[in-house]
Design a protein that fits this description.
Largest sheet: none
CATH architecture of the largest domain: Orthogonal Bundle
Shape: elongated
Radius of gyration: 17 Å
Order of helices and strands: HHHHH
Number of helices: 5
Oligomer: single chain
Structural class: mainly alpha
CATH topology of the largest domain: Arc Repressor Mutant, subunit A
Low-confidence stretches: none
Mean pLDDT: 86
CATH class of the largest domain: Mainly Alpha
Strand content: under 5%
Helix content: 40-55%
Length: 90
């Protein structure tokens, strides 16, 4: 089984509810742990957000749930704020 392609829901199902070998459960939990937010992801988050990507696109890029990305953007006061370099001419 390729755990990297499994969804979070599928990994949780394997880890918590499936009757299978303990090695499969361990691999599912390890993959879930790998997909968690780590503080070293912050520079990448800021770069992608600054480049104009949506929270959904960033979630795909970082392989995290969109809710995690939105939560981090809110935590740092960025969600809903975008600075554009367009200047208006009067």
């Amino acid at each position: 089984m390729n755990f990297e392609d499994a969804t979070r829901k599928q990994l949780l199902q394997i880890a918590l509810h499936e009757e299978c070998d303990i090695d499969y459960k361990w691999q599912a939990v390890a993959e879930l742990e790998y997909r968690k937010w780590h503080d070293d992801m912050l520079p990448t988050l800021l770069k992608l957000w600054g480049a104009g990507l949506s929270a959904f696109d960033i979630a795909i890029e970082l392989d995290l749930p969109e809710s995690t990305i939105k939560g981090k953007l809110q935590q740092y006061g960025l969600f809903g704020r975008r600075v554009t370099n367009e200047k208006t001419v009067c």
